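Methods — Computational structure assignment.
A single polypeptide chain was analysed. Its primary sequence is given first, followed by the predicted tertiary structure written as structure tokens.
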Amino acid sequence: MLSSAPPPTTRPSGPIASASPRARGFGHWAARPTAAAVPVMRSRVRSTLDGWQIAGDIADLLLLAVSELVANVVLHAADPGRLRVRVSLRGGWLRLDVADGASSLPRLPHPGAVVDPGAEDGRGLLIVQLMAAESGGRLSVRADEFGKSVSVRVPAV
């Protein structure tokens, strides 16, 4: 069941608010990590990015990333009760964080890694990593006492 988190704060306003390096905004949601959370989180991030008037190619990258990262939490997280998604816009950069309560870190694939064509999974992080790098951004992972967070940071314009 999804939590009834308040709607995200979306401060930027006016035409092409995200083009300004001083534009700022933030959205944060929590849910139980179930398959139903994937399209819900994607929809919430999409609404926020639309409100910030983020360009289609960058929005598409973040929407793919939220789908892949939330699906990874659903499939692999050891703590079935925690899933948090955060998207922020600050200083001309968009950042997507997907966090769970598991302490084990995913292995970030090497960009030149060969993926088994017969495998049913294992491509998501590599695709997100390559797309983020192509847009001038990056994928990172960090752990703390509350679990781990996988982040995608890309230029907003």
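Note: Residues 1-19 have pLDDT under 50 and may be disordered.
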